[in-house]
Structure formats: structure tokens, C-alpha cells
């Protein structure tokens, strides 16, 4: 497994835990929906995340919270491309595009993004071929169902085994299509078609995914599973998010996708110090 991801103009060093900063250019994301709709606000937020220590930025133009409604390709491109162009011209970090749509992938990579974060593991028609052509790293995430319905009644016989097998199958599909294994990342998809018990099982057994021999990305920041433990509102879940990030890295996560970059970077310094 490579310790460096080639993300276009920039590379991502996975020899130490990496913090991925979230920039949602959406009106309805679960935590920061509407906060960064204007280009100036989104750009300032991106700059702040990089200054706080983000090693990569993840740009999203369509909410994937439970119950979220889809947006058109044109809407998504209009939201993300100007921001990616602005960031690529000014900030020295890789940019990830959080999308399932092949046309958005193409537009984002052309604008300066260097990675695809696919919450559907490239299952949208044409997505695998598009990612193969674009030759950038791809994160393959597990999701049961779709955002609008995924939390209605998620069921598994063995959530850890089923998520593991799904990711193994998607890795094989991508490799068969011509995507280099060294460019593939996996994400068990916490909160995407999972109950609190499912999420707990995945976190407890996170190191089981090491057998897939691919970098592991984990997104737990501010999620409802953490709120269920503390009853804290979404914008007051920093302690829970930090604990989850530290536990995830201890169990093998190499990239943590977070809202609160500065605090997470500081917490992970303690983890690095002990290793």
C-alpha cells in the first residue's frame, strides 16, 4: 500500500494521519448548510481550514444528509467549479470533489481538483469509466440505499463483514477497469444506512478493513451517531468528534474528514507522539 497519493499538482502523504477539511457549498447539509453559499464565504472558509492544518479539502455541492433531495448536474457544477478554480489558484493543498456524478467529476478535475470522493463507490452509470479516464485517486464509500431513504430501516446480518465484502468487490471492479490500486481509498460510510449499533460495530472493528490493503478514510465529525450519545446539538459535538477521530486513527484510519480542523490536528498530534 502506497504511503503517498498522487492528487494532480499535489500529493497527499499518508505516512501520518491526514485531516480532510469539509467545505459544503450547499443550502441543506446537516451541519453547515447555507453557511458557505457565496464564493467569498466558501473561499475564506477553505483558507481558514488550510491555515488550521487541513492536508486536503473536500468540496461538496450536494447534501448527502439523511433525507436530502438530489440536485441537478448543472446546479452542482455551478456550486463547486468556481470555488475549486479559486482554491486551486491560491491554496497549496489537494482538492477532493465529493460527488457521484460523472459530469461533475470531469468539471471538477478540469477546474483543479485532484481526487474523487464517491459516496456511492462509483456505482452511478459511467462513473467507473470516468474515474479511470481522469486518473486521480478515488475514495470508495459504502452506503446502504440512497441519502433520501438510507436511514429508514437499515438492516444487516453482519454489518462489518457486509461492508468489508462490498468494499472488496468495488476495489476489484475499479482495478479491473484500469484504476491503479495505489489510487484507491476506502470508507466504511459511518451514518450512511447504519443504525447506532451498526456504527459502533464498524468503529470497534475498524482495523478489520486493513486486510483490504487500501488507505482508510473515516468521516465521523458531528454526526448524529455522536449526538445520540450526548444529546448535544450538531454544532456542539466537538468533544465527541475529537474522541471519534482519535479512536479511528488508532484503529487504522489514515484520513479523517472533519469540520473542526484545528482541534482535530491538535488531537492527532498526541496520537502521533505515542507512535
Instruction: Using the alpha-carbon principal axes, give the shape.
Output: globular
Could you name the CATH topology? TIM Barrel
Quaternary organization: single chain
Work out the helix count. 9
Tell me the major beta sheet. Answer: 8 strands, parallel
Integer count of domains: 1
SSE arrangement, N to C: EEEHEHEHEHEHEHEHHEH
Gyration radius, in Å: 17 Å
Protein structure class: alpha/beta
Q: CATH superfamily membership, which one?
A: Dihydropteroate synthase-like
Overall pLDDT metric: 92
The CATH architecture classification is Alpha-Beta Barrel
Q: What ranges have pLDDT less than 50 throughout 5 or more consecutive residues?
A: 28-33
The proportion of residues in beta strands is 15-25%
Written account of the structure:
This protein is α/β, with parallel strands linked by helices and 275 residues long. The chain is built from nine helices and ten strands. Strand 6, helix 4 and strand 7 form a beta-alpha-beta unit. Helix 8 packs parallel to helix 9. The chain is globular, with a radius of gyration of 17 Å. The chain starts with a strand and ends with a helix.
